[in-house]
Specification:
Keywords: Repeat, WD repeat. InterPro entries: Coatomer_complex_subunit, WD40/YVTN_repeat-like_dom_sf, WD40_repeat_dom_sf, WD40_rpt. Pfam families: WD40 (PF00400). This protein is mainly β. The chain has a domain of 109 residues: 7 Propeller (Methylamine Dehydrogenase, Chain H). It is built from no helices and 14 strands. Strand 7 and strand 8 form a beta hairpin. About 10% of the residues have low confidence.
Length: 162
């Protein structure tokens, strides 16, 4: 079953263990510190939100038709990105302050492997895909597409200093 552990990376000690978050293996997890949450994506495409201080489930819902590949948390707004291995290669933007309202982004023809908010402009984001592209989105539409590799892009790095 899917469980979560919070580790001290210096001592390798388990600080918190949250059991039975889901019946499926957890593929990815992110902290939402301002909410005291851990958000986890599982193999069946479901998202599970857990309060790590109260050790309580906040929300759990089916987000995609296949395993979640990546999650990204907006630095200030109540937004969570998710993507998966689903056939539509969708990126979904979830608003937890608006009952988990969802907006979909289309454009990749391969599995989206990473989504990240721009550290210099949190109203934009970039996505990487196994289709070999990195796409940059401003104000709900893709404006730039980079094709740095012919095989696939699994991840990329963003920095405020670039």
């Amino acid at each position: 079953a899917g469980s979560l552990r919070v580790w001290n990376y210096k001592t390798m000690a388990t600080l918190k263990s949250i059991q039975d978050v889901t019946d499926e293996p957890v593929n990815v997890a992110k902290f939402v510190v301002r909410e005291k949450w851990i958000v986890a994506g599982d193999r069946n495409g479901c998202i599970h939100v857990h309060n790590y201080e109260e050790n309580e489930e906040v929300e759990s819902f089916c987000a995609h038709s296949s395993c979640i590949t990546t999650l990204a948390v907006h630095p200030t707004d109540p937004f969570l990105f998710s993507s998966s291995n689903d056939a539509g290669h969708l990126i979904k933007l979830w608003n937890w302050d608006n009952d988990w309202e969802c907006k979909e982004f289309h454009g990749h023809v391969g599995t989206v492997t990473q989504v990240t908010f721009n550290p210099n402009d949190s109203n934009s984001f970039a996505s990487a895909s196994k289709d070999g592209t990195v796409k940059v989105c401003f104000s709900s539409s893709y404006l730039y597409m980079f094709q740095p590799y012919m095989l696939m892009v699994l991840c990329f790095y963003t920095s405020k200093n670039l």
